[in-house]
């Protein structure tokens, strides 16, 4: 029996995979200590399955402890060590201001205040030491740090990606002076050049690791008590890592939650035989977008979370600030706007009946007849149609529009915002959305999918049946994985097959070692970050562990041509960073449900679409394989709703996934 | 047009500008464009009115329309793009090269797509083409009058500049961005039709005008206001005054710079387009940055700068410092007239290089405090918002070593809200290098407001000896150039307990 548990904002979801069946359960998320909700969800799933905790073979876990701490900007008491003269690099950032015209808008403050920053009397250059760090100086530095009484220390010295000796010397001195403090070294946490991004990531790692270790300690204690095995933890890169490693490196798990969702989406896409998909997860306050290429989630070498850079590989999830709770309003120029303000879950849209009076996207979906007024949303929220109508009528009055036209306007503007964001996301990643299917999930994804697909020229929508627990499912099927990377700057005559193999073998051995188990079975993959000499930007190319330069050049140039429209065959190629991933494949799980789906409940409902009053047919429940769907229609799944406009038709495949095409 | 259609089409036009920007930034070669995003994109009506802009740095705000105006009367055909950088024919300063692509639907001209990028070098005697001592335009690099941009033109122009390979790549990136903009706009045209697109242009312009007028009305109150403000530029020959009389009357704002110094022998001169950009920046700060940046937003704004003055210079006056420095101070003087504490007021332009390599950077400083918040430290404050070059990237690529990069503590002005602190950046040469500094606020401090103290003025030091605000010279290996950037002014009288 395999177990996956994902902690979301409102609910903690558990999935048990047992003899090809999936059993799912939910429990409310417990923000003060997420482990409480995790165990409650596990117990609920076990009860439903009639299983015993001792039969759980593997337990995979995705959580938001590190993410939340980062969003709130608090961590353990942390000291920061940099090369003398450079202790402010974490405050200086890249010197840009976050907003062009709001002049006093500030960047997020470093997690370490000024008095917690210490200069190390040393200096490395690209070619080695200019000023040696003596043992005596390291000891003095450690003593000064000890007086500050930090729980954690981040060490980021210039050029340590290539010359880590001084960071290691600082770590040795700290171990003597501060044996209990968590120490994060930039060459180990990150390993790539560009000091601000490396230092900032190391600082996040140091400041959050003690918090994460505390949480995971509590979770393990609860698991032991219940007889549940120790969990593996989802990392931002979409792979699992053992609990002890995760507890020591909080920077690896900052995107743990979204990575599980992306893994689940990719899994559903593969199972539905949809190799290329734009995945669109629309919830209450935001929507997360990721791209599945040939069955695998697109990754990126680095990203930004809560306005802080993280220079580590992660699933490329882009968040757009538009969701079911986004509020519609009239701006001073008379245009209808949607968001960025959101009604959130509390009070929520007006139709939640919790005191919200401003019209939100969900109110418009309800008033137009796309959402069923008589079926509660996930979590048992009853919908109040009159409240939705009142809220929208008020806005319609301000805009001098008819109420239903205003509701349709809200949907159109919200869709336009999402389309605009999706266009930039796809252009920035160099993909043509027309070659992709739109995989829609989350509570509201299916309601907006058809309109967004039409705008982007996408002709197929895929909607999974297990929409509500996709992240937990993703955890069950994800591989184990460890990435190790280093900036090497091999160019010209220095870029040889031998030089590449030497670096790659070293990184591969390290990655396998850190993966911790069955190391000889793990698969090694290399990612080469390449550029033409002089470029300030790299392109990542996946290739063999022992790639030869000609092969890399061809792969790089063809990608460069695809992205930028040209090649520059005379320009020297430079291998900037080499990254090696060790992975152990995840398990295969069947997507069929515990209970065979029954014939869905069929009905009809009045709705408004493109200004016309129409009759929608409705299908409610778990739709079984083979059923044909013809728009205009809504499919009301247990946790999400799919709107199929006129002209779209489709069917349910053997895995229960709905496919509709225009 | 109904409020929904208006918002949907505004979004669609903005999306096209965003996409052009993404293509340009991702496909350019030089760090200026890629890492520092010194580039902008815009769409214009067939009559040359700017309908939408995605500006990554504000100095391009008001300067794009002049570029399109300079090619408006040319003969246009599908697939024919234009290039220019002449500051007196649509440009700003020579490193900013503009590419304009007419957009056709069949035979009908439906728009212009334009983009502008700051190139790392455009030839001339000084590597990096940012000389501190230029006196005419010819000293600053290759002047490109509006001409057709094709492969031959790319080859010919690039040949006259340093790193022709990089110039070629950057120009191709600009061309690619223009083509993407044209393609997307044609798609929009095919979807909505000629009539709706023309109406959309008009509506988006009127919408921006309506919103700007409403903000200007609030700024002036029921009786309107008239304010004056003055500042000085630190030219090599002495201080040059900038004088402003700002009037808000009903829904119109007049910014009158009559009384400002005449154009000078140095390079602090601005073509009128740059002066406008700076005024538009300040207006966006004073009004609502959510208003689309287009011609409609500025219909109710009048900028007056006498011809032959520093702020409306005649050809062939040198302009390279005008674009980066004078523009910041024009924005400052407008903000000052409306009661703001001022930031560092300079970009601290540093160019180092030899005939082979060129390194150009601008350095952040202190922001002026706001009436409700401290000014941020170590940021670009006005017309620029480019990223720094990482110390490690700099040392890997250039014969230089960074000695110190830190916040200049205590340089922000005191106040109820404190001004931001400036930055210290000290570089040691590892080979003989030419240096060029174009900086401001070395002799005159950034003023505080409403009882707040001034920020500390900046300093330029060569091996500990102070250099003037504008300086050029040679560095021998081992010599160190130290730039201490100004702090921002404070806002409001500090209460005694808060004073440091």
Q: Features of this protein?
A:
heterodimer; A: 662 residues; alpha+beta; 9-stranded mixed beta sheet; 6-stranded mixed beta sheet; 16 helices; 33% helix; 28% strand; B: 500 residues; 5-stranded antiparallel beta sheet; 19 strands; 28% helix; globular
Structural commentary:
- The complex is a heterodimer of chains A (662) and B (500).
- Chain A is of the alpha+beta class and 662 residues long.
- Chain A is 33% helix and 28% strand.
- In chain A, the strands form nine sheets. In chain A, strands 13, 14, 15, 20, 23, 24, 31, 34 and 35 form a nine-stranded mixed beta sheet that branches. In chain A, strands 3-2-1-4-11-12 form a six-stranded mixed beta sheet, sandwiched between helices. Chain A has a four-stranded parallel beta sheet with strand order 6-5-9-10, with helices on both faces.
- The radius of gyration of chain A is 26 Å and the shape is globular.
- Chain B is α+β, with helices and mostly antiparallel strands.
- Chain B is built from nine helices and 19 strands.
- In chain B, a hairpin with a 4-residue loop joins strand 11 and strand 12.
- In chain B, helix 1 packs antiparallel against helix 5, helix 5 (164-192) packs across helix 6 and helix 7 packs parallel to helix 8 (320-337).
- The chains are: A alpha+beta (662), B alpha+beta (500).
- The interface between A and B is large, with 68 and 79 residues.
Compose a concise summary of this entry:
Chain A has 662 residues and is an alpha+beta fold. Chain A is built from 16 helices and 35 strands. Chain B is an alpha+beta fold.
Strand content of chain A: 25-35%
Number of strands of chain B: 19
Low-confidence stretches of chain A: none
Q: Helix count of chain A, per DSSP?
A: 16
